[in-house]
Every structure is written in structure tokens, then in C-alpha cells.
Amino acid sequence: MNHAHPHPPTARAPLPPNGDEAVRSRGIQRTTLIAIATNALLSLAQITVGLFANAFSLVADAAHTLSDLVTDVLVLFAGRRGADPADSNHPYGHGRIETVMTMLLGAVLAAVGIGFLWSSGLRLQHMDALPDLHPAALAMALLTLAAKEGLFRYTLAAARRLKAPLLEANAWHARSDAASSLVVAIGIGGSLAGYPFLEPLAAALVGFLIVGMGVRLAWKAIRELIDTGLSEDELARIRETIEATPGVIGLHDMRTRRMAGRVLCDAHVQVEPRLTVSEGHRVSDEVYLHVRAAHPEIQDMLVHIDPEDDGGPRAMPAGPLPARKDVAAAIGQLLGIGPGSDAPAPLRIQIHYLGKRIDVEVLLPAAVPAGQLEALRRRTEAWLEAHAEYRSIRFFQQIAP
């Protein structure tokens, strides 16, 4: 068996290629900077109008918006660090930084949703204590709602274009802020219209939605961190690509795992058992290139070349099979090589470890007499009867120039 990498390190490029990865990183950073600027301006406006209009719910929403700045900075950091190239300590790159941040943002979303549920319960108990509001508070709440919804849609589109789960988590965080602003707008509007109970009811509904979204995002990140593989449909498509590659006659033990927006894969590929190492390596190159072209989400792939199907239970041979040095010594004994001997030295010995036994092919010089070659074959037949671990030993002569 042979562990074969797709091609030499100097020729290999992860998917997406380094240039695309840099573009992806810049896209994440640009989107996050726009979110930071939007949140900063909105929070300042909310505090100003909230204090002027005696709308403490608007001020509280501003505090919530300010908390988003912290998560936006975390996203910016992860976007930069996640694009760092692989190094000796992180041979697969730094994409899991995005995964960890996604999990943290999912937890924040769940916490925000629980906060809404708690707040709605408190407001239901103290509705008489709510202060009178100025209509300017409603205008600010609606403006904030529109801005947050726009930020959500912009960030979500960027996340899907860049295949960045971290940005998607941040987009839904912006949607939770829009929901918060909707709660504030409904509460302020209800208070101005004489229906203050609308605010806590809407807050409870939004709280449930946000908790559910946060749990789903966090669970998706956790599944990635524990190396959950692709779905069976995705695996079937990859298998089809591999099995359609010329030179592949079987496939087993394929494994996958995710890293941020990309996939790592390794597979055992069966080839004809008597291929040379270089030809088997070429088949592994073809598998890698075919998979890369058909499935660009796969960042890296390890192809393990098998000369026979070892996908089932692996029964061990009765004893250890001879190594090359032992086989060479046996061939030398059959040829009669030794001090003072004129026996021909083999030009090449090719060993095939198949079916828990050995086949050996020996190339001899063209000058070996026919009679000597025939005597060698008779000795070999008798020798094989006493060495069951050898299936066959065949001798060939080099063609004279």
C-alpha cells in the first residue's frame, strides 16, 4: 500500500487558492467594518434621542447595539486570523478560528434571546411604571429598525457569497438587533396608542426566535469542531467523481470533515495491483485534480493508494511477510551468488505483496545461458514448495541491444 499525496508541495494549492482566500478575507473585513460603523452611529443616535424623548427602552436598545461592536471586533479579528496561511503549528491553516467565533456568536444570540424573555416578563409586571414617551422615539426606533434590517441583508448576502459561516452568524446577530428595534418600535407605538402590553408580548416572541437561531448556529459550529462529516448526498457526489477517474477500480474508507467554509477529505483508492509506484502516484494526482475541479469546497485531500481491496475486515497473514532485504537474499541464494561465484547479479527485483503472499519478478542480464536459466527455474520450483509465503518467483532476461 502506498500513501500518495496529490502532487509535490510546490505544486499543491489549497481550495480556495491563496489569491481567492485573500479576496475572501478582505471581503469579510470590509463587511465587518461597515457593520462596526453602522452600529456606532446608530448607538450614538439612539442614546441622544432616547434621553431627549424620555425613552429608556431606546437607550437600552442602544446599549444592546454597543455590545454588538464587541462582537464585530471579534469577527474582524477572526476574519484576519482565519486567512493566515498554514504553519508548522497549524498545518491545515487557521480556519477553525472562524468556527470558534461562530460558536461564541451563537451563544451570544441565545443569551440575547433569553434576555428578551426575561425583560418581557419584568415589563408585564411593571407596565404602570413605564414613563410617557415623545413621538421622536418612535421615529428613531423605526429608523434603527430599517438600518438594522438593511445591515442584516447586506451581511447575509456577503456571507453566502464568501461562504463565511462567521459572517452569517453576525448577520443573524444584526437581525436580532432589528428584532430588538422592532420590539422597541412596537412598545413605543403601543404606548403612544394606549396599548403598552404589546411590547412585552412581542419581546417574548422575538426572544424565542433568537434563542432558536443562536442554538442552531452554535450547534452547527460544535458539529464542525468535533469533525462531523458531510451529508450522505454530498459524500455520494464525491464518490461518483473519484470512481469516474481513469485508473480507479475501487473506493473505500472515505472520510470528510469541515473547516470554516471548506472541507478536508481523505480516501482509500484501489488501483490495478501490479502498477508501479509512479503510475499509482499518477492515479492519485488524477483523483485529486478531478475532485478539486468538481468540488471546489474541498480545500485539501489525501489519497491512499491500495493495490487490492482492504476495505473489509483486515485478516493478518499467518506470519510476517519477508522484507525486501530478505527477498533479495533468497534470490541471491537461488542464483548461487557468493564469494568466487560468477553467477549473474539481478538487474531488478520487483515484489508484489498481494493476497497475504508474495509474487517476485526478477530481471537478469541478457548474457545468461539458456541452460543455466532452465536449471534456475527448476531450483526455484523446488524452493517454493518449502516457502508457502511466496506464491511465485519468475525470472526474465533483458533483451539484448
Q: How is the secondary structure organized here?
A:
Blueprint: E1 2-4, H1 18-53, H2 56-82, H3 96-125, H4 135-162, H5 165-193, H6 198-225, H7 232-243, E2 250-259, E3 262-270, H8 277-294, E4 298-306, H9 324-335, E5 348-354, E6 357-364, H10 370-385, E7 390-397
Parallel strand pairs: 3-4, 6-7
Antiparallel strand pairs: 1-4, 2-3, 5-6
Helix pairs in contact: 1-2, 1-4, 2-3, 2-5, 3-5, 3-6, 4-5, 5-6
Describe the model:
With 401 residues, the protein is α/β, with parallel strands linked by helices. It has three domains: 8-225, Cation efflux protein transmembrane domain (Alpha-lytic protease prodomain-like, Up-down Bundle), CATH 1.20.1510; 232-306, Cation efflux protein, cytoplasmic domain (Alpha-Beta Plaits, 2-Layer Sandwich), CATH 3.30.70.1350; 324-397, 2-Layer Sandwich (Alpha-Beta Plaits). The chain is 59% helix and 13% strand. The protein is built from ten helices and seven strands. The chain has helices at residues 18-53, 56-82, 96-125, 135-162, 165-193, 198-225, 232-243, 277-294, 324-335, 370-385, and strands at residues 2-4, 250-259, 262-270, 298-306, 348-354, 357-364, 390-397. A four-stranded mixed beta sheet has the order 1-4-3-2, with helices on one face. It has a three-stranded mixed beta sheet with strand order 5-6-7. Strand 2 and strand 3 form a beta hairpin. The protein is rod-shaped, with a radius of gyration of 34 Å. The two termini are 35 Å apart. The model is unreliable at 1-18 (pLDDT under 50).
